[in-house]
Design a protein that fits this description.
With 270 residues, the protein is α/β, with parallel strands linked by helices. It has a single domain, classed as Formyl transferase, N-terminal domain (Rossmann fold, 3-Layer(aba) Sandwich). 44% of the residues lie in helices and 14% in strands. The chain is built from nine helices and seven strands. It has a seven-stranded mixed β-sheet, with helices on both faces. Strand 1, helix 1 and strand 2 form a beta-alpha-beta unit. The longest helix has 27 residues. It is globular and about 60 Å long.
Length: 270
């Protein structure tokens, strides 16, 4: 009997890739919950008019121009690296082969807040054996209590190190090759602290950039996630508790423009 899988992911290309990977692996979800970002920007009236006329990208570039040449060079470097890494990941997925797209046969539910009562009830109605998570915000206890075999998450570092957001950014920033890799772990109410089910180092030439490293980690998670889910459901894996971390917990707000400029300087110079 096929397990009842609920996938919780973002609206990203990576979320589509994982959804299709699950289908191709015989783990077609009974429900996909797509977390859509809330618009948190309260633009001024002139900014809203400019964005309506010119588009967000042009307005953002004009704003960057006002912030100085160092910021402009950093943003340009990030765009170049991001585009190159996405092209690399697309080509790698074609070799699997994998065509990232939302499965048309799977019921989907879109939400801005994963932990609200409506979302929790939709997931409860799906009666999942297991929930599979990738690239979402923090899950709370009411949601985590639903699946009979727990919730799995794919994280892009060798836990317990580099818990939290943007692991690859901080590994590059800290010139840290020791903790490159992926971890698939059970989810608890805290941040990336649940028992470990699977780990695999990510082989990478060094130095590298966080965007390419993220692409390599994403590919590794896509490749190994389905088998880990199957082995977990079959009782073939003994979860291993995490020990103390050598690194701090990083939050999204820690990736400031100053830190981004400094990483670019460390990577390619001023």
């Amino acid at each position: 009997m096929r397990p009842r899988v609920v996938l919780l992911t973002s609206t990203s290309w990576e979320g589509q890739a994982l959804s299709q990977r699950l289908v191709d692996s015989g783990l077609e979800p009974v429900l996909i919950v797509r977390e859509e970002p809330l618009l948190k920007f309260d633009y001024s009236l002139p900014s809203r008019l400019a964005r309506r006329l010119l588009g967000d990208r042009i307005v953002n570039e004009l704003a960057a121009f006002r912030r100085g040449s160092e910021v402009r060079r950093t943003l340009k470097w990030e765009r170049t690296m991001q585009e190159a890494s996405h092209a690399w990941l697309e080509a790698a997925c074609q070799r699997i082969p994998l065509q990232p797209c939302w499965p048309g046969s799977v019921r989907q539910f879109r939400t801005h807040v994963l932990n609200d009562e409506t979302t929790v009830e939709r997931v409860r109605e799906a009666k999942p054996d297991v929930m599979v998570v990738f690239s979402t915000s923090l899950l709370r206890t009411p949601l985590l209590a639903i699946p009979t075999h727990g919730t799995l998450n794919g994280h892009s570092s060798l836990l317990p190190n580099y818990r939290g957001a943007r692991s690859e950014f901080w590994q590059c920033y800290n010139d840290d090759q020791r903790h490159l890799g992926i971890t698939i772990h059970l989810v608890d109410p805290h941040i990336d602290s649940g028992p470990i089910l699977f780990q695999l180092p990510t082989p990478s030439t060094w130095p590298t950039d966080p965007f390419h490293l993220r692409a390599m980690n994403t590919l590794s998670i896509l490749e190994h996630y389905p088998q880990v889910i199957k082995d977990h459901l079959a009782g073939k894996i003994v979860p291993r508790a995490q020990g103390p971390s050598e690194t701090k917990l990083y939050l999204k707000r820690d990736v400031t423009m100053e830190a981004r400029v400094e990483l670019k300087r460390r990577s390619v110079g001023p």
